[in-house]
Amino acid sequence: xxxxxxxxxxxxxxxxxxxxxxxxxxxxxxxxxxxxxxxxxxxxxxxxxxxxxxxxxxxxxxxxxxxxxxxxxxxxxxxxxxxxxxxxxxxxxxxxxxxxxxxxxxxxxxxxxxxxxxxxxxxxxxxxxxxxxxxxxxxxxxxxxxxxxxxxxxxxxxxxxxxxxxxxxxxxxxxxxxxxxxxxxxxxxxxxxxxxxxxxxxxxxxxxxxxxxxxxxxxxxxxxxxxxxxxxxxxxxxxxxxxxxxxxxxxxxxxxxxxxxxxxxxxxxxxxxxxxxxxxxxxxxxxxxxxxxxxxxxxxxxxxxxx
Length: 307
Fold this sequence. Notes:
The protein is mainly alpha-helical.
């Protein structure tokens, strides 16, 4: 492919060279995939009933591959804005390491393979939810919401909240309320997590024309909404305890980690405009928060507080 060129919407041209395996791995957004895979695993572990270890492994692979496929198609569609953002300009498509059509084909193939395998070897509920998650992330979030509304992350965050529900469905074949408490936790976590990033990457989003909250409503409004959604997230974090998920370790973790998250969000609120020290720290801590909180869900006997 050394004689092929890729032209972005901005008119810049980059020579394409033979893509390496690492380029295709980068298309899968492995860091995002790791969080998706982990929350899917926890959904599978805390679900009532049992599943053969081989089928559990297949379900998790399908969740991971489906997430990677979504990442590849997201990079295909967003290649034009990725090319002008400092955070993303070195991705495989803007740098010419992978042709856009190849990324799209790669993503479509992995999507179909993951959904079909989930349906064939696990169950219909998990496969249908995986298919919907991929559709939601690519069509609803990437193609429709991301460039059109300041609520892009709020609504689009649902895509990242489905993996534990898929894991649960892989075991039970159903979509019971306990699974949705895990969904709600990730859904409420997503806005403060991404808005913290958007604060110190505001210039990137402005250059790319993406209507992220700090670009459209300003920093002050974003900081207030981070605090507001943090309150909602903290309240939601205790919901699993009322539906038979999570024990004393989870309760303690939700309380301690939530307190730290709240304190950081208040520091972000008080931070001077144009300074992002605490926003950066909140973004980093938010990832740790979700990993640790989900890791604590299977620990110990469920409290079964009831509602």
